[in-house]
Each structure stands twice: as structure tokens, then as C-alpha cells.
Amino acid sequence: MTTYAESFTGPSAADYLASSAYPSFSLSSVYSVALQYQGVPYVYGGATPAGFDCSGFVMYVYAQFGISLPHSSTGQGAAGTRIDLADAQPGDLVIMDGHDGFYAGNGNILHAPYEGAAVRVQPIWTADYYIVRLGI
Question: Domain NlpC/P60, which positions (predicted)?
């Protein structure tokens, strides 16, 4: 049986860290790149466009900008600086207990939600989250 990870032949996060696709970092650029992966299926442990889990998705997108993150929502939350929701911009990270994704503006999250679903934008469903900005 072929898994999503085995079927992907493009660059990995490690490849992008060795040679970033986007040498210039901005939150709007990060969010624009992340949007391109809407529809990619959720795969537990996935970290390529063949299938992402939540932190694998964040890790893969930020790697394209030369930013190394762990494959862990907790670790990704610890890698940045907490900011007020009022200051959040698309491209910032939404950190929840055991889950994360990209802030999509207007109370929405762009994320790899769960098995059987695909990367998508949806309203943030809980009040138990915080926003992290990388690069500050």
C-alpha cells in the first residue's frame, strides 16, 4: 500500500531549509503560500503536499521562507512571540491545545483539521487559543 508520504516526490521542508524558495519573509507572503495548499488531505504525521497534519502544514510553509520549526504545535507556539488578537495578521499562528494553523483574518483559521478533511479556512471554534508571530 502506498501512503501519501511515499507518493510525494517534491521538495521536503528540509530541502527548503537548505535552499529557501522565498528568501524575503513577510506574513502576507507566508499566508499567500499557505493558501495554495487548500484541499490537501489531512494525514497524521504528514509534512508534504501529499498530506499534512496541522503542524506539518505550518512547518512546510514556513520552511519555504527558510524558517525552521519543529513538527509540533506546542513547539511551534514556543518558537514565536505571543501577540494580542487585535494585532494578528494572516500568516501569524493560531495555537491551541494540540493543534495549530495560520491566522486567516476575521476570526478564521487556515489549517489541516483532522483525518477525513482537507486543508481549509474555517471559523476558530474555541476561545482557548492564542496568537504567535514568528520573526519578532
Answer: 24-136
